[in-house]
Design goal:
Distance between the termini: 52 Å
Number of helices: 9
Strand order of the largest sheet: 12-11-10-9-18-19
Number of strands: 19
Shape: globular
CATH class of the largest domain: Alpha Beta
Helix content: 10-25%
CATH topology of the largest domain: Purple Acid Phosphatase, chain A, domain 2
Structural class: alpha/beta
Number of domains: 2
Length: 491
């Protein structure tokens, strides 16, 4: 690890043997030993870890939970008897190293920007391909590699989202003149995505708020409609199929209510794509987990519950074709996509990737986080207790969550005992290379938009009940600018 002041060398854990009292920098997996104490593991072995007096490299900037990859700077203390547990493995190389490692500083690896991973020039430099390394020829998602299709897709994106040149003006002598910039009206485009979270269909206020949000977009001209609506669960406030009050019949009726609400906006159904991402309370996960966090990823909501929603889109598309007439140019029909959790949206091939994830992850970080020594309080005459230097807690929590996920490069940096993962699909949770945008729908946190290392991280929060009475909130993402904003509307 290289800093502005000095260079550090990583030490394998097995190389600590016979080097008692010497300082080292370790990189490994933070785990819990069979005896219940903290331990650090790498490919060469594991060692008992003492973080009682450790300081954070960045004070309160990230969470530290077992299951994360961490950097620990400290001193190795050898002992005659191993303080860590050797259950399940022998001592020495490849097993548990005797003694303990006393950490003085703990941090996380820094996230690598997307353009560095793919070997392209950063934002603002045209996105041309560089001659450097990276994984530019790797097709991560089956949509083509960056070096194969990246430049052509960026040119296509520029042509679609850039306004056309203004038409020339003619004077009395029929000579063309350049139209003033002020006279050119802004050209609308459809490069927006509306993201709504925690859509509890069994709550009448949520259904009313959804109708209000859709009515806001239905008043826009056709050229300004969002390209996509993303609706994230939980689609029911109580675990479906796990209680007698929410059986399969009742669960389907709630989606029938959703279909009836969507049918009131045929223009949106026939011109936009609706993406539905399930949550912990949705089928089929809740049928055996009773609303608890099940193994990731989740399957889409079964089609037997969403037939009315599909029919609403078919009806809206057929009516739109009938109104357009037989001589109308070909058009792209609107559709409903029921996807997994997490899911990924690819726009313009490999140039734009959006990850969708529904999970109450903030509370899980708080439950499993380890405690380290608090940062020292600055002393001196310049300390002003009354100065308004404290950061908003909600903003601090958003930045802390953002940095933790992106630095780890994983959507679930927990132990498998704390957050199970279906191992055949574990690659779906990776955040490498960093996506262009990450949607983490956490209903227990306030809505926020943060940008870290070039990745736009968004949390739409709850559609209703976000702290303001009779106010619906959601996030609107701008594809061209790669930015987002939190929007609100009363209902």
């Amino acid at each position: 690890m290289i800093t502005a002041q000095q260079t550090h060398r990583l030490t394998p854990i097995a190389n600590l043997l016979g080097r008692s009292g010497s300082p080292h920098l370790l990189l490994g997996l933070l785990t819990i030993s069979p005896t219940g104490t903290l331990a650090l593991s790498d490919l060469t072995g594991s060692i008992s870890l003492d973080l009682t007096h450790a300081q954070m490299a960045e004070p309160d900037a990230t969470w530290f939970v077992p299951g994360m990859i961490v950097l620990v700077d400290g001193i190795y203390e050898d002992e005659d008897l191993t303080t860590g547990s050797v259950l399940g493995g022998g001592g020495g190389i490849g097993g548990t190293v005797g003694g303990k490692f006393i950490g003085t500083m703990v941090g996380t690896p820094i996230a690598e920007k997307r353009h560095i991973t793919l070997g392209t020039v950063g934002e603002g430099e045209g996105g041309d391909i560089t001659t450097g390394g990276g994984f530019g020829w790797v097709d991560f998602l089956g949509v083509g590699s960056e070096r194969e299709r990246g430049q052509s897709m960026r040119d296509l994106e520029s042509r679609i989202f850039s306004p056309p040149p203004p038409p020339p003006l003619f004077d009395s002598q029929s000579q063309p003149e350049t139209q003033p910039a002020a006279a050119a009206a802004p050209v609308p485009n459809r490069g927006h995505i509306a993201i709504l979270g925690d859509l509890n269909l069994d709550n009448p206020h949520t259904v009313t708020a959804l109708a209000k949000v859709l009515s806001v977009y239905s008043l826009l001209p056709l050229e300004s409609l969002p390209m996509t609506f993303i609706l994230l669960g939980n689609f029911i406030s109580q675990p479906s199929l796990a209680l007698s009050a929410t059986g399969p019949v009742e669960y389907k009726e709630y989606f029938d209510i959703l279909a009836a609400t969507l049918s009131n906006f045929p223009v949106l159904l026939s011109n936009c794509t609706f993406v539905f991402v399930p949550g912990d309370h949705d089928a089929w996960n809740s049928s055996f987990s009773a609303g608890a966090a099940g193994p990731l990823p989740y399957d889409p909501v079964p089609s037997i519950f969403t037939t009315r929603v599909h029919k609403a889109f078919v009806t809206a598309n057929s009516e739109a074709k009938k109104d357009a007439g037989a001589n109308a140019p070909p058009r792209v029909d609107g559709e409903a996509i029921w996807t997994s959790n997490p899911a990924r949206l690819c726009l313009f091939g490999p140039t734009h990737e959006m990850v969708l994830f529904r999970d109450d992850i903030s509370s899980r970080f708080r439950r499993h986080a380890i405690r380290t020594a608090s940062a020292p309080v600055p002393e001196g005459p310049e300390l002003d207790i009354d100065a308004e230097t404290q950061e908003d807690p909600s903003i601090h929590a958003a930045r802390k969550l953002t940095q933790t996920l992106l630095d780890q490069g994983h959507l679930s940096p927990f132990r498998l005992t704390d957050r199970p993962v279906l191992w055949d699909y574990a690659g779906a949770l990776q955040l490498y290379p960093l996506p262009s945008a990450l949607v983490v729908c956490d209903a227990e946190a306030n809505a926020f938009v943060e940008k870290y290392e070039g990745c736009c991280v968004m949390n739409p929060g709850r559609l209703t009940g976000g702290g303001k009475r009779n106010m619906a909130s959601w996030v609107e993402y701008d594809i061209k600018e790669r930015t987002a904003r939190v929007r609100e509307v009363g209902y």
